[in-house]
Request: fold
Amino acid sequence: MEEMQPLNTKPSPDTSLKTEEYFINMGPQHPSTHGVLRLVMKLDGETVLEVKPVMGYIHRSMEKMAERDVYAQIIHLTDRQDYLSAMLTNWCFCLAAEKLSNIQVPERAEYIRVIIGELNRLSSHLLWYGAYGMDLGAVTAFFWGFREREDIVDLFETVCGQRLTYNYMRIGGLAHDITEDFVPRVKGICEMLKPRIDEYESLLTKNIIFLERTQGIGVLSAEKAVSYGTGGPVLRGSGVKFDLRRDDPYSIYDRFQFDVPTGSRGDCLDRYKVRMEEMRQSIRIIEQAIDQIPEGPILGKVPRVLRPPVGEVYSRLETARGDMGVYLVSDGGTKPTRCKFRTACFSNLSCVPEISVGWKVADVVSILGSVDIVVPDIDR
Amino acid sequence: MTILKLILRWIAHPGDFALDTARPFLHQLLVTRLGLPELAFTVVCMLIIGVIMLTFVSLSAFWLIYMERKVCAYFQQRVGPNRVGPFGLLQTIADALKLMQKEDLIPAKADRPIFLIAPVLAMTATFMVLAVIPFDKNLIVTDLNIGVLYITAVSGLGVLSILMAGWASANKYPLLGGMRSAAHIISYVLSPALPVLSVVLFTGTLSTQKIVEAQAGGWNLLAMGPMGVVAALVFLTASTAEINRAPFDLPEAESELTAGFSTEYSGMRFSMFYLAEFINMFIVSAMFAVLFLGGWQPLVIHLPLVHLTLGPWGGFLPGWAWFLAKTYAVIFVLMWFRWTFPRVRVDQLMKLEWKILLPISFANLALVAVMVALSMPKA
Reply:
């Protein structure tokens, strides 16, 4: 590997002391890479000269596995990509399969999908809030985030029996109907969360140390954000007002009122603020949808053996981390001939090497946390 | 009845007991009865005091670890340790036993002697400081007439142990931690010392015991006017940084450097660092109590308009209880810091020291000097 070459030595200009640049491996096992990601960092003292992400430690060749399975079996693979918003990755694959085989999703299922999806976005952002706090040394934030996430995860457990890898969406609808106490519980969660989000802000947002650690750090300009193909809060934090729910509405998102929060400078603080505001907007969407769930079936007319017509389709969806896409090619058989996943974290990570240069080691942790990566989503 | 009264008096004034009863008794036993030389008596006295201090320190470190875990748990909406013993009180002992059983690993490329000395030095430095902390009237290991200077000098050694550990581990993460603590040593010896200096100016003594005695009429925190508050705040901030506690826990910064300087340490060696860290917290809080909150003196509030003393009620609690109560109040504040603040960055830490704390404490020192000069009786 080229990073293992002998170290470059350069004499320091004003003294006779020689200083050396050195490499440090952050990861694959490191508390702040959120999984098995390895960052090879070239450092001069504490200043970062170069960052190289090394990926693939948990590559499972999901795209190849998808070619082996029938369509319905692929859904559970998507659970294992962005496992923190697995409902949304499930949904994204189902959207593609439905589009490919022209399946209508019943109204009731659409509403439940939206509510569950937004709840999942909330739980994912709550976990991110905690993890980001911990990255910056505020361990208490971690427990606060998990405390509220617990209620949402409990709700998911009653709906689909799982707390992390849900496998809840089906091509054409949902696996199970919601329970009777679902609606009041969702309302309860929304009511509980609103003051709690303000509480989170009181813990971090106005804290001077937090501001010092995030303001102006890791600035990603709007052009760079677009050219790196970033999505979600990373893109919006840089000031690009782009949200697939608003700009390319899938499902029934065109029926709801919500704002797309954006940042202005593209630093860590902006990405943080965008996510905090997104949580409030998610609650807004849930509150609009929760009283309108119609009666009816939860699964559309789906053939026993799904054989989509010959063709190809690309469908995309806004997960908690950005723009996720699924590209499906069918030859008319029961299994796809090609299934390509475009995941948000992979693109988001690509901007990290550029925006980390020149900052300190501690800032790389802050930047990585603000980009919010999920490693299985990078490696697939 | 008289025995009960006597025991009660000993509990209330352990220092008096040690001086009036235990010491003469021991002297009579060793020198007069057994005919041992005076030196043997001194050595035995030192040994006894040493054992008592070690026991006290170990127990309070255990208690502090338990307290930290409980406080942190309640900050984080958890329950904390509650399984081992009543209210989980024995959890720390269970942890210590576990640590003792761990394999004592030394990395192959480590600088062995330095690697082995570092945790011992960390412990030694903290123990040494304790010698001049006045727990009560008469309850002090040795009342040095330059006690404050001694503390400032010795407490710097603790940081040196971190530097040694970081260097000797032959691993880049501890090295980064060590580098950070080297920057620490250079910067953060000064600004905890300057507020101390202003107290010394105000009270006119370098002895810790005399500083406490000088506060019989009112705590330095208030008696020095606004300068006292500023000095206290600077001292608290700077000494939190000096003992590497969050939000200034840069040498070990878990999310950046895994475990920082102690990454390569395991078992008892690790626990020595851990113990030293908690004793340091005790020392800093005790220093704060001694310098600004009147040490073992009972509550006295003395302001231009308000004068509040507990009068005879102050004696209701023995002096050491007052001292511990004040110390633990400060310890709680330190824990509060740790569990609410994010961590600062290494250059921000330096900026805080050189651009904010240092000018403030210099200005404050000058103001205190002017105040003292003005209030001096004309010679």
